[in-house]
Amino acid sequence: MQLVKNILDSLHNASQKNKLLGMFKPVLNAIDGFFFGTPHVTSIPHIVDPLDIKRFMSFVIIALIPAVLGAIYAWGLRVIAVIIVSYLFGGLIEVAFAIARKKEVHEGFLVTGLIFPLILPPNVPLWVVAIGVMFGVLFGKEVFGGTGRNIFNPAIAGRIFLTIAFPQIMSVKWPLPFTSGLGGFVHYQNSVDAVTSATPLALFKTQMLLTPYTQLFFGQGTGCIGETFRIGLILGGLFLILLKIVDWRIPFAYLFSVAAFSFLGNQFLHTHFAPPLFQLLSGGLLLGAFFMATDPVTSPFTKQGRWIAGVSLGVLTVLIRGLSGYVEGVMFSILLLNVFGPLIDLLVLKVRYRKKIVTAQK
Amino acid sequence: MIKRSKTFKGGYIFQRYLSNPLDTLLEQGIPEKVIIPLAQGFGSEVKLLVKKGDKVSAGQIIGRDDENVSSPVHSSVFGTVEEIKRMNYFKRELEMVVIRADKTQKDYLRVEGFNPDWAKLRQEELEKILYLSGVTALDREGIPTRFKSSVIPPSGVENIIVHGVGSEPYNISLELLLNGKKILNLIDGLRILNTIMPGANMYLALNSRKQKLLEEINKIAVKYKWLKVVPLEPKYPQGYDEMLIPTLLNQRFPYGYSAANIGVVVLNIQAVLSVYEAVCEGKPLIERIIALCGPGLKEPLHVKARIGTPLGEIITPRLNEKLKSRIVLNSLMTGVKLNDLTLPISRTFSHLIAIPEGDKREFLAFMRPGLRQQSYSHTFASSLLPFFNKTADTNLHGEERPCISCSYCEEVCPVGIIPHLLSKYIKRNMIDETLMNYNIFNCIECGLCTFVCPSKIPLLQHLKEGKDKLTMQGCDHAQCILPYFDMKGIEEYRGVTKL
User: Fold this and answer.
1) Which of A228, A263, B190, B240 gives 20 to 30 Å between its CA and that of A108?
2) Is the CB of B361 less than 8 angstroms away from the CB of A39?
3) What is the ipTM of this complex?
4) What's the predicted TM-score (pTM) here?
């Protein structure tokens, strides 16, 4: 502890003397705040909740740990490299903006930097990861004014950009996961020769094949890095809901409406719409519902708005999956709802605070 | 008779904090000198009746004004008037009477006409005793009598609410206030109030977690048809008039006005006990029981102190010298910070809370498990282990960050406004009717939004600022209230209701 303090103090002194180093003050302050907390005191009320944004965001990361471990097991140690690249380049943009704005480095990026790699295909080249995360943080968040003001979820913005810019890389080659022994914990990545196969959703779309549910559940299917180990995602999501970090309404409404509408679709048009359980357990739905649709900044903030958003997300996802040319609809529907979030809130507020008719009592 | 206790939407139940006051009561004794402000509790400043050098007795009325809404003020000790000066006392410029006390005389003058068998007294005699004893000045709007002690006459009262909910982080101990025979005193006090205001329904709202006390009171209360005992969850801010009235009476509250304006008198337990003491024992309001709580003290307990005793005499010898403490009056959520300990205590004081000033930095603070942290979210070990008492300090526990719209503040808001939204409007200086439409004037300044905010945004401060700016622009809270309510006594003087 004393050691960290000494290093920080000497860095602080150096930054005060050197102008160039002085620019990096936000970074220093962030590190300082990370280790030592704050000396500031309250005014009124005299006591405040000890929960801060650092802890808030840390818990999202903790909730993602099972999914990350599952991903490493399935896709090899390369996943760690992808995550490091994502943090490095995304962090670069974040710090650059903090320096330019002369503001603090905000913690929101810690979550973006981890979620972004989880929604990429396992064999994505590292340079693509770097481009994607930089685009996501820059155009998904910073151009709107940084954390708290962004309209789009930065991770999804980056991912959609990659999907459109590099369709070949992003949606054609899907390696098979490790399924036995120590799996990915002792390999860098599955050998290039391993048979590549389509994702479960694509298999259904093209050949009406339903992948077994246990395979989907325990992460033996193909798919993006972090979306296949679904039991870990469910556990992580429930953990966040129990801790009140995310609101239960959006994931519940989202998953429920996916189940309901795919049941209806399956009844009437079973060639296009997969059965409910399959829909719930395939693609990025669970990751999206628990970790991305619930991002408090970009989702509606009113309770009613959250219900509306959840249900519309479900409808959109089922429709895109069933009727469009795309295989997966979670990302697009979340991005679309990000756009409509403020509008939904505005409508809810209009209804809630509509002008009362002036009538005196009695 | 287990019924689900009534409650309201929003709010937050504080878990038990460390160093809640013990059930012991100490006599503070007579101080060297007392300083008595001429406006205490509800009412305007009264006219001085003594001059420098006068000999006064404890219980003697030294200030009285029958023209305006007020109650008499007494000397709390025997002694001589040493000085009369104007000074600033909690944002009011007041006349203060400094009395050098005679420490040998611990007695006091009884109020004229008191009678242990109070049932023999007529209604106007009861009212007179209450008025002369000063008890009528207690609580936010006082007790109505024919002597202009409140903004409404006794006949205008439709409901009386007596509450001991204890929803604050630190509360005065109900068990102490109501130990032994005091329960009977409380009931007698209620009956006296019922005699003065026979038309009013009486509600006695008590903490639903104090089952033993509730049962005892219920046994006695069944005899009286006009009295309803209601258990209430100790959910902050249930003890506020603004929350008690919607919860108990299913009535909307005229935010920004007082309960008296809609014919409700809200009193706390200590006020009713004082009513009993005034009528049956002839004791004027010269003493208060004050709960001393918080980890900044050596030992948390209750003291009975004469009004006018300087704060320092009560609290300084009991502070833990090893800690730098902040002393707060009455409530950790809304109370003022007491910097000047030479100020005297007045009738409105009920709690003095000392919590350590948290200006020290903590290594890896945000990663600590937090066994003793009070948190709205469940991210601390304390939510798994609720039996650990929680610590309190004034550290901000994190840097201020932009709002992430987590809507914790909306969830806890007891009056259904969206603090984070309003705060964004106010910060960008977009101050117009939109704010009014979003019910900014409903804000009762309970401070819960600022308490729960993980981004450490001073939402309460922003909301206050917004209200002030709106009022300066000519949008008054009256516009939101007056068209909807049939208000009583609003043309009368309104005192400072809260510190």
Assistant:
1) A228
2) yes
3) 0.87
4) 0.89
% chain A with pLDDT above 90: 34
pLDDT at B297 over 70: yes
Q: Report yes or no: A347 and A312 within 8 Å, Cβ to Cβ.
A: no
Residue A355: the pLDDT is 65
pLDDT tens digit string along B414-449?
Answer: 998 999 999 999 988 888 888 888 888 888 888 999
Predicted pLDDT at A83: 94
Query: Hey, are the CB atoms on A49 and B375 less than 8 Å from each other?
Result: yes
- The beta-carbon neighbor of B456 closest among A35, A52, A361 is A52
Is residue B283 a contact partner of residue B338, using CB atoms and an 8 Å limit? no
Q: Which helix (H) or strand (E) holds B230?
A: strand B227-232
Q: What chain B residue is nearest to A296 in terms of C-alpha separation?
A: B406
Is there a contact between B394 and A45 if contact means CB atoms under 8 Å apart?
no
Contact B406 A296 (CB under 8 A): yes
- H helices, E strands: number in chain B: 13, 16
Chain B partners of A34 at a C-beta cutoff of 8 Å? 364, 366
User: Which residues of chain B have a CB within 8 Å of the CB of A153?
Assistant: none
CA dihedral sign, ordered B434, B437, B438, B439:
positive
When pLDDT is cut at 50, 70 and 90, the band that residue A234 belongs to is: very high
CB pairs under 8 A between A and B: 204
B465 neighbors B491 (Cβ within 8 angstroms)? no
* Of A37, A51, A107, Cβ closest to residue B361: A37
Strand pairing class (B25-29; B264-268): unpaired
Give the residue among A258, A288, A289, A290 at the shortest CA–CA distance from A276. A258
Q: Which of A35, A44, A56 minimises the CB distance to B460?
A: A44
B403, closest residue in chain A (CA to CA): A148
pLDDT digits (tens, 9 = 90+) for B60-117: 888 888 888 888 888 888 999 988 888 888 888 888 899 998 888 888 888 888 888 8
Share of chain B above pLDDT 90, in %: 9
Residue B83: strand pairing partners: B98
* Cβ-Cβ contacts under 8 Å, B357 against chain A: 41
For residue B432, which amino acid is it?
Answer: D
The string of DSSP letters for A27-91 reads: HHHHHHHHHH----B--SSS---S--HHHHHHHHHHHHHHHHHHHHHHH-THHHHHHHHHHHHHH
- Return the structure tokens found at B413: 């808001």
Contact B357 A41 (CB under 8 A): yes
Instruction: Give the model's pLDDT for residue A362.
Output: 35
Q: CA neighbours within 13 Å on the CB side: how many for A169?
A: 18
- Judged on CB neighbours under 10 Å (0-12, 13-18, 19+), A24 is middle
- B418:A301 CB<8 A: yes
The tokens of A262 are what?
């795919």
Question: Is residue B296 a contact partner of residue B355, using CB atoms and an 8 Å limit?
Answer: yes
The torsion angles phi and psi of A114, rounded to 5 degrees, stand at: -95, -35
Mean pLDDT of A50-69: 90
